Amino acid sequence: TFSGTPRSNETGSNESRRTFARDAIAGLTHHPKQLPPKYFYDAAGSELFEQITRLPEYYPTRTELGILRDRSAEIASIIPQHAALVEFGAGAPTKARLLLAACEFAAYVPVDISGDFLNAQARGLRKDFPHLEIHPVTADFTAPFRLPDQVATMPKVGFFPGSTLGNFEPHEANRFLRGARDILGEGAYMLIGIDLEKNERRMYEAYNDAAGVTARFNLNMLARVNRELGGNFDLAAFAHRAIYNRERHRIEMHLVSKKPQTARLHGHSFAFRAGESIHTESSYKYSIERFNALARGSGWMPVAAWTDPEGMFSVHALVC
Ligand code: AVI
């Protein structure tokens, strides 16, 4: 299981379905065509992502877990005691559990769009950490939200693992970090997991796994457009492509049309040339210095950074 990743955002309500339709039509009208990566994570997509985190080629999840496990004592010595740990986009709390076991937290505040999921996770945690206050918050963590009153007087430590920040465009990452500072307040700490730029083959293979799970994950976006919005995309006529864009320091995932074709959605038709792509995700890779510059520019001060022995992934402690 993983944590710190976007959770299932199945468009259950009419309103969320309308938003999905609007975003999909806007993205497919855009030049070049694009679809927002947050729509990967319906139930099927979240399950495929779980599978990705266990792939031999996908190093980020297990590398970050290793860093948190090996460095938990150091992390505990830096952050304030009896603080509230606020996790942005809480998945299965595997990574949070490592911190909760190693550090003296008074409260855990997992923030996620899926309330049912949060409450199920909280029940499991209560058994293992009987003295910990757990206050789940059901909210979209990329927008402003209020912390529960019960943690108002506690020091705050934000937690954003999984390199999910890498799926934000740089200006979105800046906005997220500023927003986190506003939510957590003056003097708060933040622990963030970041995927580091490395050997291109290594990065390429992480998004082009031999078993084809990432391809299925990518194509699920169009399956979802068909399933939930009544689109008529021919899934067999699109291919998964993931490349490293060196200039922009990012993996880009695309769905590439194998032939000239037209797809219809809500009365709109979208024409594709052979080879034309829909850009579905960017996954930015940082250096420690470039991440520190982003943090400073968003009102945070770098305190420490830990990496694995191969320098593939980093966990950063920031203070504001
Ligand atoms: C959730 N996020 C950090 C993953 C990543 O590596 O950018 C999503 C992903 N896309 C393809 N594989 C994994």
Q: What is the structure about, briefly put?
A:
It comes from Nitrobacter winogradskyi (Nitrobacter agilis). The chain is α/β, with parallel strands linked by helices and 320 residues long.
Element string (H = helix, E = strand): HHHEHEHEEEHEHHEEEEEHEE
In total, the number of strands is 13
Q: Could you give the distance between the termini?
A: 31 Å
Number of helices: 9
- Class of secondary structure makeup: alpha/beta
Ligands, deduplicated = N,N-dimethyl-L-histidine
Rg, nearest Å: 20 Å
Mean pLDDT: 94
Task: Quote the beta fraction.
Answer: 15-25%
Protein name: Dimethylhistidine N-methyltransferase
Organism: Nitrobacter winogradskyi (Nitrobacter agilis)
Task: Tell me what the structure shows.
This protein is of the alpha/beta class. Helix content is 37%, strand content 24%. Strands 1, 2, 3, 4, 5, 6, 12 and 13 form an eight-stranded mixed beta sheet that branches. A three-stranded antiparallel beta sheet has the order 7-8-11. Strand 2, helix 5 and strand 3 form a beta-alpha-beta unit. Helix 2 (43-53) runs antiparallel to helix 8 (213-229). The longest helix has 19 residues, at 60-78. The radius of gyration is 20 Å and the shape is globular. Residues 1-5 have low confidence and may be disordered. Bound molecules: N,N-dimethyl-L-histidine. N,N-dimethyl-L-histidine (AVI) is lined by residues 5, 52, 60, 162-164, 166-167, 207, 214, 281, 283.
